[in-house]
Design brief:
Elements: E1 3-6, H1 12-23, E2 27-32, H2 35-41, E3 49-53, H3 59-73, E4 78-81, E5 87-88, H4 96-124, E6 127-132, H5 145-165, E7 170-177, E8 191-192, H6 201-213, H7 222-232, E9 241-244, H8 246-265, H9 267-271
Parallel strand pairs: 1-2, 1-4, 2-3, 4-6, 5-8, 6-7, 7-9
Bound molecules: NADPH dihydro-nicotinamide-adenine-dinucleotide phosphate.
Length: 282
Amino acid sequence: MSVWFITGASRGLGAEIAREALARGHQVVATARDAEAVRRAFPEASGSLLPVTLDVTEESTIRTAVDAALARFGRIDVLVNNAGRGLVAAVEEASDAAVRASFDINFFGVLSTLRAVLPTLRAQRSGHVINISSVGGFASAPGVGLYGATKFALEGMSEALHGELAPLGVNVTIVEPGGFRTDFLDPSSLHTEPHVIDDYAPTAGATRTALAGFNHLQPGDPAKAAAAIVGIADIAEPPLRLQLGTDSVARVEAKLDLVHRELAQYRALALSTDLAPVNHPA
Ligand code: NDP
């Protein structure tokens, strides 16, 4: 039995991960901007569930939630950084405020939560950090470049964290979901910008239209994603990255193919830029 600490557990993937972890007999600290939303989502709540208020943009709420988790369960084994929001706009269309707000939740919110939880995992010399990124954190596309930037930042940080924490007995996994049927594309979650530039209608505009039409029609099953995510915490050497969904696998494969092709095509040029080797006198 492990103690799970999950952000954004009021609905969507976070709530499903909490439900799956509870079903497997784990203890769960289900945090949300409004703990009442967790209580409503889990009316049958047992003593294994601790609903706590935590807004990832408010450091004091993170500290309070971690203290409550430790007071109740004495340890934290798995941290799931799940809270996040989408942003759809061409790079030039998005306001500075919207981009910073996205980074505040999707990147700095994770960083603040890590600072609050990692001292416990390091002291235990065990634990697992699961950072919910996106396929958009590995391969970007018109209209979602700035959302993707928040998740690219998350992935870059997570790769380094993986190397820093491995010697201390703590695992790190990045999860890259494709489209999963949650409220993610709903106006209650997805941020769209009022400022639209006609020149981007065939690119970012097309993405905006497609995503609106895709709301609550995504192919991915959040309950199956939750089962996969809870399952990887049982693996002795879990993966650094886990793709979820056929769409995610296809986009990651396409990106890897492109990178391989370009690397091969421009290999000679890439290798031509070192300084000439220095011949040291014998
Ligand atoms: P939902 O919109 O259904 O859920 C988002 C969750 O994040 C809600 O619980 C929401 O809380 C919470 N949240 C938002 N802002 C904050 C905040 N400041 N502090 C704490 N919690 C916050 O979307 P998903 O469940 O799909 O999204 C979960 C994660 O999965 C996100 O990181 C998203 O980027 C990622 N993802 C989702 C995909 C999908 O297709 N569903 C695809 C790729 C990645 P509240 O109820 O209070 O708003």
